[in-house]
UniProtKB/TrEMBL annotation:
Organism: Yinghuangia aomiensis
Residue segments, region Disordered: 133-153
Superkingdom per UniProt: Bacteria
Protein name: VOC family protein
SUPFAM superfamilies the UniProt entry points to: Glyoxalase/Bleomycin resistance protein/Dihydroxybiphenyl dioxygenase
């Protein structure tokens, strides 16, 4: 069935709210009706999402989910992030709507993925498409492509597990608990980049849990790390994410807090 198309129909509380949200992310309305039942169809390139309106529907009760496989997750994330920042003045990381960042998923063959959670609580899971990799972000895929990074420390392994727990399964509290334990345990095998990435993600998890005090504490711990220029280069993405988390919590970022020694 090479000519077949599968288009998810997701529940929502308001097709007007959903339309306003998705058009800010670059989607266009291809169909809309209010009677006999509210319904809207949206498209962005080859990605199509349909929604049916349900009076009284609550985002907290949603089990809606779909998978979007793309050649590269980064460009779509950046486009969505730009739209979200324009609409909300920030990148929403908690509540409804929210977005997770592209991160490699050990349960998806080490390939990158992120999730966009819409105002009605539906998970739009964006993953990188790759030949011979199971197209199921919730599976425990064991095949790991050559592009997947090698996990060489206990802390890096705990970080990878926390990404699956929080970003794939949505259990942010458990992810924060397990990663906190790993961060606080000595691990001589962990590289400086491992610690930066784990602490930046842990700070984000605390922010998602509406615990800015703990987020601040973990960011302060990150700032106290001694990082060489090479360490900073290896952890550049995590350092940029940590700076954005500082901005979201209203605490100034000290980009020179960890001089090389």
């Amino acid at each position: 069935m090479a000519d077949a198309r599968v288009i998810p129909i997701l529940p929502c509380a308001s097709i007007d709210e959903i339309t306003d949200f998705h058009t800010a992310l670059g989607f266009e309305v291809t169909y809309r009706q209010t009677r006999p039942n509210p319904y809207v169809a949206l498209r962005r390139g080859s990605v199509e999402l349909h929604y049916n309106g349900i009076a009284g529907f609550r985002a907290e009760d949603s089990y809606g989910s779909c998978l979007v496989a793309v050649p590269d997750t980064e460009p779509l994330f950046e486009a969505f992030a730009a739209g979200l920042r324009t609409k909300y003045g920030r990148l929403p990381l908690a509540g409804f709507p929210r977005i997770t960042r592209p991160r490699r998923r050990k349960n998806y063959g080490g390939l990158s993925g992120f999730s966009l959670i819409d105002p009605s609580g539906n998970w739009i899971r964006v993953v990188r498409a790759e030949p011979d990799v199971p197209q199921d972000a919730g599976s425990d895929a064991s095949a790991e492509p050559e592009s997947a990074p090698a996990t060489t420390s206990r802390l890096a392994a705990a970080h990878a597990n926390a990404v699956v727990t929080a970003d794939s399964r949505g259990d942010v509290a458990q992810a924060a608990k397990s990663l906190s334990g790993a961060v606080d345990r000595p691990d001589p095998t962990a590289t400086p980049a491992d610690r930066v990435e784990a602490l930046a993600f842990l700070a984000e998890l605390h922010l998602r849990l509406d615990d800015p005090a703990q987020a601040h504490a973990r960011l302060d711990e990150l700032d106290r790390l001694t990082l060489s220029p090479t360490d900073r280069e290896n952890a550049a993405t995590a350092l940029a994410q940590a700076a954005e988390i500082r901005d979201l919590t209203g605490v100034a970022t000290d980009t020179d807090a960890s001089p090389a020694k």
